[in-house]
Write a structure and sequence with these properties.
The complex is a heterodimer of chains A (193) and B (42). Chain A is mainly α and 193 residues long. Chain A is 54% helix and 0% strand. In chain A, helix 5 runs antiparallel to helix 6. Chain B is mainly alpha-helical and 42 residues long. Chain B is built from two helices and no strands. In chain B, helix 1 runs antiparallel to helix 2. Chains A and B meet through helix 1, helix 2 and helix 5 of A and helix 1 and helix 2 of B.
């Protein structure tokens, strides 16, 4: 296993992982997951990008499209995720699948390309939605951040185009669409009202 | 979520990722502890 020398990502990595974990749990709760499934989902979500900790910083900090070589390295991170937990028997099969499959899309695209879309777990598809939503909102991974309504719209379109599980996307939007994370709600009250 | 609670959660998460970054591997113990704290709060 290759070792990195100290943290080479900033707090945005922690925030992204924490946000994806929280969003995935919201969906898991709505789907009525029992305690074990809920913890497996949360663990997979928290660890879903740990392979990125092994990649050079510039791959995540860029605001321009990655070169072919860099893109290939970035697309390798699910395998690095899986390697980081492969020797630990206490991580369940679901957790292993989530970290390895969270970039596999229902339409058969995505990566790693050798994973069949039909074989992904629901937990992986949940984490994919949570991951994508946080990427769109925050710009994590070099994207241009979108306002919450645009992120929701993009998420729905990707569901319609088969890049996300549309049933889960629809539920997700119902759950977080009114007051998305990172939004602020202010109370407008007239004096004396 | 109270800021103090959020800070404690962030600390747990940070410990997990620091260790993974240094060793290249995730240990179930600290991960489980962080997840339990998150699930209790959420």
């Amino acid at each position: 296993m290759a070792m990195s020398h100290g943290r080479h990502l900033d707090a945005s990595f922690d925030n992204h992982s924490f946000a994806v974990c929280t969003l995935a749990m919201i969906l898991g709760q709505a789907l009525g997951y029992d305690t074990m499934k809920f913890h497996e989902l949360a663990t997979g979500a928290l660890l879903h990008d740990i392979g990125l900790l092994q990649l050079p910083r510039h791959l995540l900090r860029t605001s321009t499209p990655l070169s072919g070589e860099d893109l290939a390295a970035f697309h390798h991170h699910p395998q690095l995720d899986a390697m980081a937990i492969e020797t630990q028997r206490d991580f369940s099969q679901t957790v292993r699948q989530v970290v390895a499959e969270h970039h596999v899309t229902p339409d058969g695209n995505g990566y790693p390309s050798d994973t069949s879309a039909g074989s992904t777990t629901e937990a992986s598809r949940i984490v994919r939605i949570a991951d994508r939503y946080d990427e769109l909102l925050t710009g994590f991974g070099g994207l241009r951040p979108l306002p919450s309504h645009a992120a929701i719209q993009q998420l729905f379109q990707e569901g319609e185009f088969g890049r996300l599980d549309l049933r889960l996307v629809s539920l997700f939007i119902k759950l977080v669409g009114i007051y998305p994370i990172y939004s602020f709600v202010s109370s407008i009250r007239k004096k004396g009202g | 979520m109270a800021l103090e609670t959020r800070d404690k959660l962030a600390q747990s998460v940070n410990i997990v990722f620091d260790e993974i970054s240094k060793t290249g591997a995730a240990r179930p113990g600290p991960v489980k502890e962080a997840v339990q704290k998150i699930t209790i709060v959420i």
